[in-house]
User: Fold these one by one.
Assistant:
Number 1:
Amino acid sequence: MTQDQTNLLQGTLDMMILKALALDHMHGLGISRRIEQITKGTFQVKPGSLFPALHRMEEEGWLVSSWGESENNRRAKYYRLTKAGRRQLESETQRWGRISLAIARALEAS
Amino acid sequence: MLSRMTNFWRNIFAKEKTDRDLDEEVRSYYESLAEEKMRQGLSSEEARHSARLELGGIEQVKEEVRDVRTGAWLDSLLQDLRFGARMLRKNPGFSAIAVLTLALGIGANTAIFSAVHGVLLSPLPYAQPDRLVMIMESNPRYAHVWVSYPNFQDWQRNAQSFLQMAAFMQQGYDLSNPGTPEHVDGSAVTAGFFSTLGVRLALGREFSAQEDQYGGARALIISDRLWKNRFAQNPQVLGKPATLDGVDCFIVGVLPPGFRFWSDADVYTPLGQGDALIINPRGSHDGIGAIARLRPQVSISQAKAEMSTIQNALDRLYPDDNRDLGTDVMPLKRELVGDVSGILVMLLGAVGLVLLIACANVANLFLARSVARRREFGIRAALGANRGRLIRQLITESVLLSLAGGALGVLIAIPAVKSLLAAFPDSLPRNANIGVNAPVLLFTLGVSIVVGIFFGLAPALKSWNADFQAPLKDGGRGSTSPHSRAQSSLVVVQMALTLVLLLSAGLLFRTIRQLSEVDPGFDTQHIITFKVGVSRSLMKTVASTRIAYQQLIGRIRDIPGVQAADFTDTVPLSGQGGTIPFWIDSQRPASLQAAPRLVGFLTGPDYFRTMGIPLLRGRSFTPHDTVQSPCVVVIDSTFSRMYFPGSDPLGRTITFGFASPTGPCRIIGVARHVRHWALDDPTSSTQNQMYFPLAQDPDQWVLVGYPYLTVVLRTPLESATVMPAIKAAVYGAGSDQPVYDVRTMQNIVSESMSPQRFPMILLSVFAALALLLASVGLYGVISYAVTQRTHEIGIRMALGAEKKDVFRLVVGGGLRLAVTGVALGGITAPILTRVLPSFAHLLYGVSASDPLTFAAVSSILVLVALLACYIPARRAMKVHPMISLRYE
């Protein structure tokens, strides 16, 4: 039970990060701000979960990182989606669609 | 996959750069966050504080990233290993003792396992060896007898269960050209023998069907060794001549290096050209064995059933020779390995006990040390290390130790195996196959890891029952801890296991003593035995052969210092000898297979005097007993008792033999029984003995039998002193006459005890090792207890206890453990010896529950235990009450 929950949450965070990076490359703080923005503040990603997720996803080959200049001239690490990352986003989106539809139906039924 | 590997590489080997990157990334995040906050209107101070709160600790974030990286487990393992290695280096004494203890245990196991692997586990070096079988015949008296060659040929023609069938016969040959004359071991084999085994010759071919018959071309196959030694590895050796037993042969094949079957034969000849007297009669079962390769899908039991149908038909066809004759089909490996498997498994068990004792010692060391390290673990636990991680740390350390012990053990095992094989060259079959090789090393590695986990886990779990915080609260000094109970039970088990080993070694030791005191029925002192390959030029006819042998023994008797000498075809206790069917007077049995058997000796008239066998009744042979005079025999006292109870055997007659029986021969004397098969004279083997004069050996047997004769010679001189004169006397009649197999009777007697001596010496070594380890273990536990109880002892002394009371307290504690162990071992040992028939079979003249042996080894054990307690007890007596109390 606990395991499923973590998986679900982790999957959700991964999807958020992928979605946030879908348009443009971004650094860590940018990603967490972007997630806050697109979920209208529902999700607040703490660095303690953001960084492990970023590094794990980079190892999976979904993201690549490079050093660049931030908006206020600070050296920052930027993340960008790879082809595999885009494919992952698509399949995550589809999976999420199926799950939320199923849950919605289940809740309506009862 | 590739990216994963590069990640792995980067995380493990470019660790510093990855860490720097991470640090910079997190730091930049933090700075950006703070700036963002400042833009929202916070002061620089407040912004930084708030950013730090949101971040939740830079180090923690970095740690969490490290944990998700590929290879994180390896990273922490390396960390554990580094830390473990540091801990072990910090305590060099502790580590050295633990590694040495384990090395002894693991090394002994590696050595014995290499024998078990080489002899029992590894497949025979032939193609698909599990499809190879051996076929033997059986009769109502013996489960296995050698095969009759005509029967074998009928099987070969009729049996469908086999792809191929072949026969072999061990033989010795005198090789006189090229090179110096030499006696070589060899084998006569049928055409198709090597292809049945699936062995390809290195050069040439095996025998053809035309060569494998009477009058065929004198083809010869040689071993790789002979090819190297005699033919300088000449690749053009095929077709080259060689002289074997005075007959010119030519080489048709060379075997691959290392080929071995049954014995280390150097030459192979076609069996079909063998002696007509041995291979032609259907009733002859004289050293020929049959092997076969099963057809695919055919099981051994199916083959057995088919063979017995064929044999039944043959029995009906040839009732005179074959009646009551059966067959048996069995895996070839079992036949080649023989009956050592029980002994080897027993030795492996014994050496396993030694390893257990070694493990208990190291476990005790770990227990003692885990007390000392309780504070360290308490602190680490307080700083956030979880329990699993700490246990992993302990196991890593113990496995590190046991691997070091295993590596050192292998270094011990390699020379141990070598010297073992050198000391007992004939005690194990397939011994060329024994060595510390890859499978053995794998076994050692496995044992080391299991052992490491075993003795690491026990103390780890034990100490984890304790509260982590407790050691931080008090000064780390407690009253009697639960550890000491665990340590005590380990010592009791060690003592019990040691007793079992001591007892089994002791029983075998007593067995050897008993065997050495056995009177074998003849005088074993001052006898030398050897064989002579009499020149074939002197053996052109039967008459010339008889004369050549007469002259040879005459020349030997003339040598100064030789008191008596004569020929025999069978030397007692040497492993030689076969049994012959016979009947008394005219009571010819219906079937030869059902006839009683005797152990026959073909000897010259001086044999009894030379061997010191007393004649109890009648007369011995004289030079007047020849082929021209009536046939006579001498029987032994057992024969007389078994077949002539209450009557006089002298004047009765015996007829003996298979194919063309000899006799009836008149019994002219009764000699004392000689222990022939072994000193313990197993009643399961044929006991009744008969002597037949060499001079009366029928003409047709002379050329076949004489080359196998052994000279026995009585002289007070040393073998080395007298042998040159003997060789000179032998060579005087022809330089192509090798003298070989020179042995003293004392050697033969001593070697006859090797079935007992081999396990006895090994068990003694193991028992000594166990005793050493167990006493070190006891010493460790007692001296640890003394250290722990210094305070208590101080109080006792302050309250008026005398030094001898303290001494009694300490030694008594140790003694209690030893005696409990002895009792436990005393209960276990008889059960073990009873369920190990291969051990019980070795005993002679001493019962498995011999009270004397038990008393002796128990006192040894208790005495050594006392010694082990003495040193700590001395230290306890020196405790000064004031000093020990001052630490309060």
Note: The first helix of chain B runs from residue 2 to 13.
Number 2:
Amino acid sequence: MVRVQFFGQVRGIAGGKETEVVDCPDVGSLFSLLSERFGHQLRPESLIVMVNGRHIAHTGFLETPLESGDLVSIFPVIGGG
Amino acid sequence: MAEKMLMRVNLTTGAISREPLNEAWLKDFIGGRGYATKLIYEEVPAKTDPLSPENKLVLALGPLSGSNVPTGGRSMAVTKGPLTNCIACSNTGGFWGAEFSRTGNMFLVVEGKAEKPVYIWIRDDKAEIRSASFAWGMDTAVSTDRFLKDVDDEKARVACIGPSGEKLSKIACIINEKGRAMGRSGVGAVMGSKNLKAVVVRGTGTWTASDPEGLKEALRVGMQKIKENGVTSQGLPTYGTAVLVNIVNAVGGYPYRNFQGGYMAEADKQSGETLAATLLTGKKACYACPIACGRGTKVGDKEGEGPEYESLWSLGSNCGVVELEPITLANYLCNELGMDTISAGGTISAAMELFEKGFLPASDLEGGPEPKFGSGEALLYWVEKMGHAEGKLGKLLAEGSARLCEAYGHPEFSITVKKQELPAYDPRAVQGIGLTYATSNRGACHVRGYMTSAEVLGIPEKLDPWMTEGKPGWTMAFNDMTAAIDSSGMCLFTSFALSADDYAAFLKAGAGFIGSTEEMMRCGERIWNLERLFNLREGLDPLKDDTLPKRLLEEPLPEGASKGMVSQLPKMLPEYYKVRGWDERGIPTEAKLRELGL
């Protein structure tokens, strides 16, 4: 089981702060599943997606593998300081 | 813009004068931070005590302050900082800067020291030194109202100090419009040392572009980018800067309990999302700002502004305090007492660790609550004592964490660079920001080169926060660009949407004396090097001072996504000196200075 957390405006799309998924071997399949579940096309390239705190840009993007116990965090593009 | 002047007020002699701006300095240093640093470098003698009458305080605008470019209302205090003994430049938003611009002035240089508490009242090209005895001892909110009454003009704008600045606290700031701050490095104490309680301004002039048609086009392009950018059009307006809490925590870089950790399990309870759902009463925008990241908030019957991300973290996670209410009240208190929130939280967290480890004796609390991590009651009590510099511990807290921890014989618990408290990103989890902290000319600071933008937020490129390769070059680019933006009078937050070309276009059409992007970036580099020269002249020792606290270099993060990591600063620092054109000791070479005309 993989935990998926949502932040910022993504919580509005997901209808909550967190969900759980199974049978998603990588980030690409996770996004297909979530888009279907929420009825909203989620585009990882226009979001900040982290697996266990690492941005997927540094771990293989959509091919980033997922294993049971992983934590995926999905943020909108944000800034501040 | 061309007719703007420099006003001098000598509080020792009472002399007031105005003079034209130095055109060569404008071309070389743009204005604001750059121009004022040049003035301090030239006019304040080497090794001057920052709290002596010989130090000068410059309240400065950029050439775009008061214009209609987006966020064009910034102002800043530039001086030799009492916290760091380095150059200080503390930058604020709000409306004071735009009003000061309407007086026809771009700089106010305050010299000397008044015999009794005074304030300066500037109305267009005239200025008066007036008694401020009636406001001495009052907090910044009450003082602001009293000054507006005294000048009998509700449209005037007030920048003032609170009790903290009066008591010469080294972490005192200058507050304008009750909730915006020229925050860092103790600039409020410099005002206090001059017996200057406030500068009140009111102007009737207008700002004119040197090329109005060119500016229209630059505005069209820039505003479109700000509107289309997710950060400036959605993230910041909806959640404010506190939107960063969860993401920085997710990478394991949200410092916890005086940097003993980099992850807080309950972080979402103090996030921008939670703030928006609970205490938020409305968003607030500074002058000419289309972003509106400011937060109007309410706790019980008390209303105020903030907390911003940095304040929320320093008074919250770094002190182990979870709930938003005490954090927000502590933030209000800092504003009222006139204290830098980052240094205030960083100093109280150091006191908490001293107490936790048994190095701060209970007898020094003089009946106050034990400064334990997680105690909102202790946070509020000690912020108050620190702001008034009251009691044994209150007096020590007002000196900042470096001097506090030295006094208790444990300097290792002060998480500072050049005696200034670190901001809200742990350099063990985000490597490049550690290089910024270590080399920042005003002591530890995130807005002297906001590497977090690239390393965590992926703007303008996605850099791996764990890697060190290429970070020195990126840090230098962020340093120089930031120096140019600060000097222009615009807000750094526009840089999430705008490029260097956009700023250069604003400066070219608005001010006229910057011709290209390359020229603007060269000004940024020149400013950075001049600040470095100032610090070296004042005694900065790069081998000793361009570093990070031992904890961050040697103690691995105990939990979170970056568990096990330490800062790899030693890998980056030599390359940083090299890309800067400095020698291996961190000193600008003759060739570099010649190239920059310094």
Note: The longest strand of chain B covers residues 105-111.
